[in-house]
Specification:
The protein is α+β, with helices and mostly antiparallel strands and 186 residues long. It has one domain (2-167): Ribbon (Umud Fragment, subunit A). The protein has helices spanning 2-17, 28-36, 60-71; strands at 44-45, 52-53, 78-82, 97-102, 114-119, 124-134, 137-141, 152-153, 158-167. Strands 3-4-9-5-6-7-8 form a 7-stranded antiparallel beta sheet, covered by helices on one side. It is globular and about 40 Å long. It starts with a helix and ends in a 19-residue tail after the last strand.
């Protein structure tokens, strides 16, 4: 019963905080369970005092278990990654979150999607929001950053699209997979 409550809490957290994961994409019994439970998300102040980043009562181990279970829903190609502590995507998420990243074709991307891409000069993965489209490329920007990134997101450097976020208690984070880096905030 405790595991079912934890799964329901995560499903509710993901379904209510990540636009790409909707209750109607879950199995009917999971959607009903998630709809019946509300996630206890408490805000934490970030570098700029007015910004709040969600967290949950889930420990890192619980969050990893739930994220792993969600990554296998509907046989989709989803991986789970941790977040580097740059703050560029606050208040949406920070290093106290796990990201569910789906393999989605570049042609299906739209403005507002949060994606990962390989920064050609930094040689690191960056996770930022698509904010402007020019031809077949996008400008991206960290939600907490003051300006757009200095490179386009192209079919060549694009990696994956954000499908969900699993929040967890603040604390030390062991790396699950290589953390998804984000450019330092301006």
């Amino acid at each position: 019963m405790k595991i079912i409550r934890s799964v329901a809490l995560l499903l509710t957290t993901v379904a209510t905080t990540a636009p790409a994961v909707r209750a109607d994409s879950l199995a009917p019994e999971s959607a009903a369970l998630a709809g019946a439970i509300t996630a206890a998300i408490k805000p934490r102040p970030t570098r700029r005092g007015q910004d709040l980043t969600p967290s949950s009562q889930l420990t890192r181990d619980q969050a990893q278990m739930l994220a792993g279970a969600l990554s296998r829903v509907n046989g989709r190609d989803i991986i789970v990654c941790s977040v580097a502590p740059t703050g560029s995507m606050r208040p949406y998420f920070d290093e106290n979150a796990l990201l569910l990243l789906e393999a989605a074709p570049f042609s299906e991307l739209k403005l507002g999607d949060v994606v990962t891409f390989l920064h050609p000069r930094l040689h690191k993965l960056v996770v930022h929001r698509l904010v402007e489209k020019r031809g077949n490329v996008f400008w991206s920007k960290g939600d907490h950053n003051g300006s757009m990134d200095d490179v386009y997101v192209t079919p060549e450097n694009y990696q994956r699209r954000l499908a969900g976020v699993v929040y967890m208690q603040p604390g030390p984070n062991a790396v699950l997979r290589a953390p998804v880096a984000a450019a330092e905030p301006n």
